[in-house]
Amino acid sequence: MIHREKLKVTEMNRLSTEAYKAAEKTPLTIVLDNVRSLHNVGSVFRTADAFLAEKIYLCGITSTPPNAELHKTALGAEFSVDWEYAEDTLKVVERLKSEGYIVLAIEQAKGSTLLEELTLEKGKKYAVVLGNEVKGVQQSIVDQSDLCVEIPQYGTKHSLNVSVTAGIIIYKLATTLMRF
User: What pTM was estimated for this model as a whole?
Assistant: First the structure.
């Protein structure tokens, strides 16, 4: 049996908050469209931090820092990842598109692209929109998005938790964009 000793936090060489702020970011922005769970929002912050995402937009009913419940899952990532609150998700999407972002609604929709078939382009910036835990991404946002991306599922349930979806999507897009 091979002995593998777990690393101590001090051995992981993680960036400080200041170094994170100064680091070159992955050209990936996350838009949370009316996400109601503070734990989901905090989890998205941690995942965004892990993959050097540019920014998170917290829209509609989505809670914002400072918040003790959000902090429980964000564990300080709300201090490293840039974020902005916006009342209207559609205005954020329109602004991102005008700034050259390719907007991907993460939603099950007619004509959606399966995640494993998604092709990203070098030099492009991407924004992913994740929706409400019950209603998903608003139809008006789906209509304005450049593409709908769907994570294939093979069991009896028709959806994944939004924080799980965020983890899968952010990992896939960020690791692809980091290779360019």
Answer: 0.95
| Interatomic CA distance for residues 111 and 114, integer angstroms | 9
Question: What's the rounded Cα separation, in Å, for the pair 176 and 120?
Answer: 8
Tokens of 61: 């009913």
54 band by pLDDT with thresholds 50, 70 and 90: very high
Average pLDDT, the chain: 96
Give the span between the Cα atoms of 30 and 57, in whole angstroms. Answer: 6
Q: Nearest 5 degrees, angle CA 49-CA 51-CA 53?
A: 70
Alpha helices in 51-86 (DSSP H): 68-74, 77-80
Closest CA to 72 of 35, 45, 34, 32: 45
Element (H, E) at 169: helix 162-179
Q: Please list the residues that pair with 127 across neighbouring strands.
A: 29, 103
Q: Check: CB of residue 27 under 8 Å from CB of residue 52.
A: no
CB burial readout 86-103, b (16+ within 10 A) else e: beebeebbeebeeeebbb
Going by DSSP bridges, is the β-strand pair 113-114/125-130 parallel, antiparallel, or unpaired? unpaired
**Rounded CA gap, 161 and 118, in Å?**
21
Contact criterion met (CB below 8 Å) for 34 and 58:
no
